[in-house]
Amino acid sequence: MIPAYYEFSNHAKVLSGENAVENIAYELKVLEAAHPIVVTNRQLRDLGLVDIVLRALADGGIDVCAIYDAVPVDSSVDVVNDLAKTFRKTGCDAIIAVGGGSVLDTAKGANIVLTTGSTDIKEFMGSEVITARAMVPFIAVPTTAGTGSEVTGAAVIKDTERHVKMGFVSYLLLPDVAVLDPRMTEGLPPRLTASTGLDALTHAVEAFSCRQANPLSDGYARAAIDLIREYLVKTLEDGQDRTARLAMANAAMLAGVSFSNAMVGIVHAIGHACGGQCSVAHGDAMGILLPYGMEYNMDVAGERYGELLLHLKGAEVYASTPAAERPRVAVEAVRELLGDAARRAGMPMRLSQVGVTEADLPAIAATAINDGAMSLNPKDADISDILGILRAAL
Amino acid sequence: MKTDVRLSPGPAKRTKRMLAGVVFAVMGRGLVACARLDGRVRVEAGSWPEGTAITLAISPGSPRVTVRKQNGRIHTLGSRTDVPSTLLVTFKGVDSALPVLLGMKGILEAFAEHRATVKGDLGIAMSLVRCLHIVEGYLYPDIMTRRILPRPAVREAGHLRAYAGLLGTAANLGEKGAGL
Ligand SMILES: [Fe+2]
Fold first, then answer.
1. From A213, which residue of chain B is nearest by alpha-carbon distance?
2. pLDDT (tens digit, 9 = 90+) per residue, B67-80?
3. A214 at the B interface (CB within 8 A)?
4. Which of A168, A200, A292, B1 is the most buried (most CB within 10 A)?
5. Interface with chain A: mutation pick from B86, B126, B127, B145, highest number of A CBs within 10 Å
6. Which residues numbered 151-210 in A keep a CB inside 8 Å of some CB on B?
7. Distance between CA B59 and CA B114 in Å, rounded?
């Protein structure tokens, strides 16, 4: 499949492997920066993950000019502005974000404020609005293997005054360097390992099947699913397996590149709404909803799902499954993986297990229909279609 | 040595821009008319915050249309530039815009092809896209809408009423706007 026209960019340099963090000092020199601010949260500091980065920077002769560890679970405008203020006040010249999605999104938001000199980040809300000759040098060190935020040009930041989530999409938001070091994720408990891993799987499956898919994003999605097939369960069996941890970090990154360029679809739209309305953790919503979203899209995207069977189950199953059966078997394979994650890590399989009730569904559907991810889903959906998916997954 | 290599747009580009300007005007009036005639657009526009000003434009320069919600009603402001847009959809060039404006390419396909940038609340942009799909359903015959709309066009009012509404908008509603 070749689209009539597409765009693709992934200019983040990837450092992947044992001790990758040790090379951040060198990368700062390449970026002509010497005084980074380290952005993170308290919990990650207490776990000692930030110390690994700080020690590596000290060994590399880098003076960290500030540590900002006040990032909350949901990144907000206030935190973004506060971070930008600290950056300016302390005379920093680069950002190192150590954390999950909200830490990285906060760093991206602060980078918009710092680069543009704007005092109102709302100015840049939307898609492909930001213009700049160069952003502030930005290095991302993910501590989960799921969001892929270290290689995506998207950020979601809460407007605390208006109680809405603002979306920012721009290739300029991509970090300069993404650092995948297995030490950063080996302490993740199984439950979080499972839900973030299924988030990565959802990124790959949705990116591969949505309207903006292209040959480059397809390649990344396929590679991501191959790694998830082989290593997700291994990380659940043995969290200290560094090869498996590194592989899953790579899977999340590859899926991130894919969906940053191809976007995601209805599973994310509904999942975001479940998060907003009922505080369902993102990865949990992804795991629960993915098979139902695939079934909804089946008549339009079935052929694409069939192609993914090769990656979800491997060459032998793919070859021995008749072409017409492959889409259905692909959904089964996703369910199998979710079942594995449920048995080994207690992943929920239904929305009712994460506190969603029938009474919540209309509000979730009304929010989901306005989610940007809905626009690139391969199949159109109205409120009643979304309610159908929600009821099936309840 | 000649260093000034600026070229002014050729006649073909100028014609395309003029055409885009005309279609923008029709779309703006179509939105106002549908906010009056079609319950679905009325509900969508009803959810927009008071003062919402939506602009469709082409970069660089002129062709554009703005519709604004004021006192609960949707008005078209034509190509006026003095009202700041709360949602600005800008096509990257006239060649990016025309296939969409002439009903040859779907709006969602255009976004997938990065033909336009969106400045503002993406949730309202989603609502706008649903409204524009409904407007396109009235403006174009089924043979065209089959290719560009995500599902078959459903028209609450007949084509003729819509065109009358559209002309009525042009004649009468410019100032009064469509009630919600
Ligand atoms: Fe996700």
1. B112
2. 999 999 999 999 99
3. no
4. A200
5. B126
6. 164, 166-167
7. 13
Is residue B179 one of the residues assigned to a domain? Answer: no
Mutation pick from A6, A8, A125, A386 vs chain B, by most beta carbons of B within 10 Å, is A125
User: Is B123 at the interface with chain A, CB within 8 A?
Assistant: yes
Residue B178 pLDDT exceeds 50? no
Give the global pTM: 0.94
Long-range contacts of the stretch A215-218 (C-beta < 8 A, 24+): A215/A1, A215/A2, A216/A6, A216/A8, A216/A261, A217/A8, A217/A257, A217/A258, A217/A259, A217/A261, A217/A262, A218/A1, A218/A258, A218/A262
Residue A72 near chain B (CB below 8 Å): no
Give the number of domains in chain B.
1
Tokens of A46: 């207490």
pLDDT at B10: 76
Tally of CB atoms within 10 A around A63: 9
pLDDT tens digits along A81-116? 999 999 999 999 999 999 999 999 999 999 999 999
Instruction: Provide φ and ψ at A61, rounded to 5°.
Output: 80, 25
CB–CB of A7 and B114 under 8 A? Answer: yes
B127 touches chain A (CB under 8 A): yes
Residues of B in contact with A211 (CB under 8 A): 108-109, 112
Whether the per-residue pLDDT at A78 is higher than 50: the answer is yes
Question: B102 is in which domain, residue-wise?
Answer: 12-164
Cβ separation of A7 and B121 shorter than 8 Å?
no
The interface predicted TM-score of the complex, written ipTM, equals 0.89
Q: Can you give the CATH number for the domain in which B142 is found? A: 3.30.1050.10
In a domain, B173, yes or no: no
Give exposure, B38-73, as e/b (b: 16+ Cβ within 10 Å).
beebbebbeebeeebbbbbbbeeeebbbbbbbeeeb
- Give the bridge partners for A97, in sequence order: A39, A140
Contacts of A361 (CB under 8 A, 6+ apart): A387, A390, A391, A394
Query: Residue A139 in contact with residue A14, Cβ under 8 Å?
Result: no
The answer to whether residue B175 sits within a structural domain is no
- CB proximity B97 to A under 8 Å: no
In a domain? residue B133: yes
